[in-house]
Amino acid sequence: MAQLSDDCFAFGGPMMSVDEAVAIIAARVHAVAESEQVSLVEADGRVLASDIKAPLALPPFTNSAVDGYAVRSADLPRDMAQRFTVAGRVQAGSQAADAISPGKAVRIFTGAPMPAGADTVFMQEDVQVDQSGDVVLPPGLKAGANVRPAGEDIPEGHIALCAGQLLRPQDIALMAALGLTRVEVRRRLRVAVFSTGNEVVSPGSPRGAAQLFDSNRFMMTAMLKRLGCDVSDLGILKDDRASLASGLKDAAAHHDLILTSGGVSTGEEDHVKAAVESVGTLVLWRMAIKPGRPVAMGIVDGTPLIGLPGNPVASFVTFTYVVRPVVLALAGTAQRNPVPMPVRAAFNYTKKAGRREYVRVSLRRSGEGVLEATKFPREGAGLLSSLVDTDGLVELSEETTSVKPGQMVGFLDYSHLI
Questions:
Q1: How far apart are CA 384 and CA 207, in angstroms?
Q2: Which one, out of 56, 162, 389, 414, has a CA that is 20 to 30 A from the CA of 100?
Q3: How far is residue 346's CA from residue 403's CA, in Å, rounded to a whole number?
């Protein structure tokens, strides 16, 4: 279980920047220590628990990179084409019976091991084969051309993958190429998720006239599962300090992270702050981000808690920029911030200095072929359609105060954020 001291987040002060907040969290959480062995087919998206050293070289033998004819570099034609007798044939998966003789060529195919003594391959497209079966090779080819030396990709004993790597399909391909069948990964994070508020009910339950169906809990669960977490859905906790405190206490005993939605502002009916303070420690952030300023961070019996805003767009944005880095740090892997893609703005926008803002936009291609970002026509952190009907976010730095049409801005596709 990931454990934190009650004072490791004891910092406050003025509104905190996004980068400050993320850096402080990531530096203070500790990755889960437990690991497990899984098969390669189960390893995608898991975090590698220990370095993998290559048990063999890749490729394990010197082989041809093309279909063609293998020769000795000492026999390469210098100034004019030269005729060679074809003295053998090597297919992929087989070996040449004999070493190549001086002045001879060997027919060879992609991936086949080079005959002993041969070190250069002519592509079959560059040669001529006469009626007798001899091959005419042109001059000008460099020694060693079209050959893949043993260990060219990865030498034997080299660290092929480092601990903390979030495994991807290409990493799994590499492990398979090294002959591995199982890999040691960190166990999945256990995350408890619940929403708060008397105004929300679960889909499928009766809804009162003044109530809404809960959407944040399902969004957070989906995003956590994309990060490889095991999620416990604790449902909706009502706006009652005692029941909230009891729910938090129970969740902390069996989870690595508690994630809540709603009830983290400063209103009279926002009880999460008081509930956390009654069973642990909480620092309520006023983070300099829009949408999403009310974000809470706390510790309950050593388990970190993050309370997200109740508005769904604010919850989405703060999950991306606060929860995601914490989850990755707890999982033992590094956060890789997505690099915004430069696009041309097709909208006007003004903002306050000192606050980072994320504008929901769609992409289109202008008449001259330039990618342009068009702003969602309505404001509001409660508009789920603004996430569904757009392609991503334009990130506006703390220093930016306005955007004009034609200005270049940084675009982040949703696929890179979740």
A1: 19
A2: 56
A3: 9
Instruction: List the beta bridge partners of residue 90.
Output: 108
- First-to-final CA distance of the chain: 25
- Side-chain-side CA neighbours of 344 within 13 Å: the count stands at 12
Instruction: For the chain, give the mean pLDDT.
Output: 90
Is residue 296 within 8 A of residue 264, CB to CB? The reply is yes
270, 254, 274: which is closest to 262 by C-alpha? Answer: 270
**DSSP for residue 188:** P
How many CA atoms lie less than 13 Å away from 287 in the CB half-sphere?
A: 33
50 vs 83: CA distance, rounded Å: 54
Instruction: Determine contact, residues 299/281, Cβ cutoff 8 Å.
Output: yes
CA distance readout (Å), 167 to 42, 253, 364: 10, 29, 33
pLDDT per residue as tens digits for the range 208-227: 999 899 999 999 999 999 99
Other Cβ atoms less than 10 A from the Cβ of 169: the count is 10
- Arithmetic mean of pLDDT, 92-107: 94
What are the counts of helices (DSSP H) followed by strands (DSSP E) for the chain?
Answer: 8, 28
The band of 97, judged by pLDDT with boundaries at 50, 70 and 90, is confident
Whole-angstrom distance, CA of residue 257 vs CA of residue 30: 12
> What letters, b where the CB count within 10 A reaches 16 and e where it falls short, cover 263-288?
bbbeeeebbbbebbebbbbbbbbebb
Beta strands 135-137 and 147-148, pairing class: unpaired
- Whole-angstrom distance, CA of residue 289 vs CA of residue 155: 47
